[in-house]
Amino acid sequence: MDNYTISQMAKHVGLSRSTLLYYDRIGLLKPSGRSASGYRRYTDKNLDRLQRICALREAGLSLKEIQQMISAPGSQSSEILERRLAELGKQAVKIRQQQHQIAAMLQQLPGTKKTQVMDKTAWVNLLAAAGMDEQAMRNWHAEFERSAPEIHRDFLLSLGIPDAEVKTIRTWSALEQA
Predict the structure, then answer these.
(1) What is the SS3 string spanning the chain?
(2) What is the mean pLDDT of the chain?
């Protein structure tokens, strides 16, 4: 089918009719035309665009960012996506830190189930159990820092390691590379 009503479009992607009316009003998704009785009509090309809009919304982009990406694809699109990815990384680190705080609070409450989260000690024990000695762990950090420094930083923070210690680890990791 290459000719959809607004209700068919909405149903196809799981949005409300009023959402599509709003997208039309802000210029994000204009219908291809109108029927003889004045109803909006959409084509497969409109459906493809709407599916892309939905995917970008699902990724957490604002309608303004989506409008920018769709109207001027290219380097601006990659900048928007890279910015969103960085935001998500920061949120993930913050959530992980909150998990560590809550787990520590739970451990201090009598009669509560011991909740475990991956922390520095558990991670080091896991690497040691896998047969890595101190030098292998240092090499692992050095390679991680070389190949993905910001992800390395975020990972260390996600283990509940304080900022100052993360900076120290990253400093000697960078020196190991040299």
Answers:
(1) CCCECHHHHHHHHCCCHHHHHHHHHCCCCCCCEECCCCCEEECHHHHHHHHHHHHHHHCCCCHHHHHHHHHCCCHHHHHHHHHHHHHHHHHHHHHHHHHHHHHHHHHHCCCCCCCCCCCHHHHHHHHHHCCCCHHHHHHHHHHHHHHCHHHHHHHHHHCCCCHHHHHHHHHHHHHHHC
(2) 89
